[in-house]
Amino acid sequence: MSTSTTTPPSTRPANDPPVGRGMRFTGWAANYIDERTSLSGMVKELGRKIFPDHWSFMLGEVALYSFVVILLSGTFLTFFFQASMAEVEYEGSYVPLKGVEMSVAMASTLDISFDVRGGLLMRQLHHWAALLFIASIGLHMLRVFFTGAFRKPREINWVVGFVLFILALAEGFTGYSLPDDLLSGNGLRIIDGMVKGIPVIGTWISYLLFGGEFPGTDIVGRLYTLHILLLPAIVVAAIGVHMVLLIVNKHTQFAGPGRTNDNVVGVPIMPVFAAKAGGFFFIVFGVLVLIASLVQINPIWVYGPYDPSPVSAGTQPDWYIGFADGALRLVPPGWEFELLGFTVSMNILVPIVVLGLFIVVVMLYPFFEAWVTGDKREHHIADRPRNAPMRTAIGAAGVTFYSVLFFAASSDLIATHFRLSIEWVTHVLQALLFIGPILAGVITHRICIALQKKDREIALHGFESGRIVRLPGGEYIEVHEQLDDYERWKLVSYEDYKPLMVRPDARGRISPLERVRAVVSRAFFEDRITPVTRTEIEAAKHDSH
Amino acid sequence: MANDTDTGTPSTAVEPYAPSAGIAVVNDDAIPNPGFPPERPRVTDLDPAVEQQQERRVAAWFLLSIVGTVVAIVAYIVFPITPGDQGSVRLNNLFLGLGIALALLSIGLGAVHWSKSLMEGHDLVELRHGTRGSDATRAKAVEVFQLGNKESGFTRRKLIRNSLIGALVVSPLPAVMLFRDLAPAEDPVGLLKHTLWEEGTRLTKDPTGVPIRAADVTLGSVFHVIPENLAESEHPLEEKAKAAVLLMRLDPEQLQISAGREDWHYDGIVAYSKICTHVGCPVALYEQHTHHLLCPCHQSQFDITREAAVIFGPAKRPLPQLPITVDDEGYLVARSDFNEPVGPSFWERSL
Q1: Which of B 216-275 lie inside 8 A of A, CB atoms?
Q2: Mean pLDDT of chain B
Q3: Interface predicted TM-score (ipTM)
Q4: Does domain B192-334 have CATH number 2.102.10.10?
């Protein structure tokens, strides 16, 4: 193992072995730029920066690269798309819709699909990349959550990433609505209905948003401005902050021999990480193009132009909006009342508030856990999920809650595919929304503790080698083989917390908040498996032989 | 930057800053880190023949990428789009995509293969430094703020400071005002309470606009209906979004009719708003033998025999009923507009 040495390519000593013409040009160019930008300082700082390696660290990369693909394919689409809701008669080359009245937005989307070579490819690429963008952000967030990579000093970056997730959803929905086809129009209709359900200001917000009554002739143009200008600008800025903080904080790493909280072990940006990450960009791009060329997505010509009257059975939103649609579906009948003559739509408000609370909890979780542990140290070693049982349980509960809402958005399809009644499916999902997260949390917590016990057992007594030995007395035993120090380290190096013991402060008082913290910390750490200690290892060695 | 090295002092300098470990257990008896395991060389590090083979393999990927690019360009030309021919679109999409995908994937796989098999493969170590600035740096930063404060008098001259804050707080208000003209001048509440239907408006088929005779509506049939004057209206889509109606004929015996609605149907023919009272999807699915209407978006169900009362799902209110009768020529016409606002609830709905 050698320590990183920084040799910026631009400050190559003159007395090196003879260099080729290409190198001479590179040297000249590097010098030219450095004398005008002092870029060599940055190369020195960042060029040999170390990145740890683990497959799960690539999820965020997938998100970043699919965003680049979105920008590239989206720019192509803007050259052809016209965000106007003016009515025209379609005259393009898709025969079944010839002569049909539709908006210019829909007609230009059809033109992209059927009259521009590669246009359909770019449309499908854009849509697939958008789905991958959101999916990979979601998985990346789960990775960060379950490994505790949001702990100090990365809480702010968690919030930035969370904002990116919300922006990605907004980008997805605004983009999805642009073609002005039947399916996306129904999506907007639902948004309109939800907005109208907001007390006091809802009617006006909807009226202003749509530039008059629904659907109006303004919404596509307005969403387009948000979709290609405002939201991407914020996304790019937030990604910039996300990356700068990543560099400042340096990447987390999993526990391993030689890895400590004070070092980063991995490959340098120049050249290995650059090659791997750069190559990976092309792989993500290539896979997306492959999907776009093979798998159809959002065939708006099948749906036809938007018309407020028809709708087909089994309408589904794009999957990432599913949890919101599912929340609307699970509301029981009758949740609406009048207050002093005003209509209060609890059937809309409750889903909005519940979803709002859910995402706020996700955003604030790092601060909550930091408050419970009171741990102000920096944490750079990623936890194995089992070693933080309560956090993992909370995460599993959250995932279950989200999943129930997600599946609820397909309740009608579940009913038709499995020949169940829609009422029954809805009632089961309603019950699961409450029971599911609790069950998932409790079970996950027990599984984590069990896994920790197993790790402890293996660390102390080794693993079953499969070798059966008969002792002189006739007894059979299976020989346990000890782990070597390197393997054992992964099992024994984790953070251990114990419940908070409330003590009076300097003025002899115990604040109510501190009492709450004690209760919560007990829930978190009452059941705990402590890491194996040196003494225990020694004792185990004497025991076994 | 975290790895700030311009002070020249090693990272092991004594720092007085010691953050609290909270309720973490710090155990002196913990097992020590065993340090790095011995390195394991790759086969390419040991065998020059394998190394050369891998080198050729990486280059092969990059050459394959060039082939992919050529395929894409050729596909663009040899698979043009013939207007009206769906198959040509499909071929263009497929081969253009496959060519580009081959070009991109090969670059990616080549680069990753290069990095894994041929580039220096040993892990390197970089030290972390606390994210927090050094005490000296922080003292300097505090001094900057203090000087700024002292030289401007920001906290001392309270009048200036508070008036500035006040001015900044109210200054965005005109920007908020500017959004009023996102929508026309009328009040939305009035608009939402009226539809195109009025006394004598004929019920016509959606989308053809053919008027419907009462005699054509057989028992158990269902019609998607729009008002006859929809096409001539100023904003057809907006009007349709409120005026769309579903018409069906039931055995008059089956209808449970409340007081005041006795003459809203015509011989068992009833008309209900098609716009869901939940969030406004078209309630388009009619189950003939149960007389239930189902909204495909959120599964609210309405019982037509009981004046479209909600029997399941998140909707609260029944679908508004359009009072109908027949004119002299036997065509179905509206008796009046709906007697309540159609579609999703809104705050001022019942005012």
Answers
A1: 224, 226, 235, 237-238, 240-242, 244, 274-275
A2: 90
A3: 0.90
A4: yes
